[in-house]
Write a structure and sequence with these properties.
Helix content: over 70%
Largest sheet: 2 strands, antiparallel
Number of strands: 2
Shape: elongated
Number of helices: 3
Radius of gyration: 18 Å
Length: about 110
C-alpha cells in the first residue's frame, strides 16, 4: 500500500527540485526568442526530472516492496517493479520529446 504513495512523495520532492532549477538557475529574457528559451527550459525540466526520479523509484522499490511476492507461477521482485515503473517514466520522456517535435514552434515542416 505504501509503494504508490512513496512514488508520489518522491515525485513531489523531485518536482520541487526541478522547479527550483528551472526558475532560479536559468536566465530567461523577454524578447523575440523568448518562446524558444521557454521551450529549452521545459526540455531541461523534463530531462532533469526523469533523471532524478529514476534513482528515487529504485529507493522506493527497495524500501517499500517485499523482496518477492506473487502466487503460483507468477513471482515478482523489487527489480521487476523498478523496471516496470522506470520504463513508464522513460517512455514518458520519449513521448514528451516526440510530442514536442511535432507540436513545437521551433520545428517547421519541410
Amino acid at each position: 500500500m505504501y509503494f504508490p504513495v512513496a512514488i508520489t512523495a518522491f515525485g513531489i520532492v523531485v518536482c520541487l527540485v526541478t522547479s527550483y532549477l528551472a526558475t532560479n538557475c536559468t536566465n530567461l529574457t523577454w524578447g523575440d526568442d523568448s518562446l524558444s528559451q521557454i521551450e529549452g527550459v521545459l526540455k531541461k525540466q523534463l530531462i532533469v526530472s526523469t533523471i532524478l526520479m529514476t534513482p528515487a523509484i529504485y529507493i522506493a522499490c527497495a524500501l517499500f516492496l517485499p523482496s518477492q511476492w506473487g502466487t503460483g507461477d507468477f513471482k515478482a521482485t523489487r527489480f521487476s517493479a523498478f523496471i516496470a515503473v522506470a520504463s513508464g517514466l522513460w517512455g514518458g520522456l520519449a513521448i514528451g520529446y516526440i510530442t514536442e517535435y511535432y507540436t513545437s514552434y521551433a520545428y517547421s515542416p519541410t
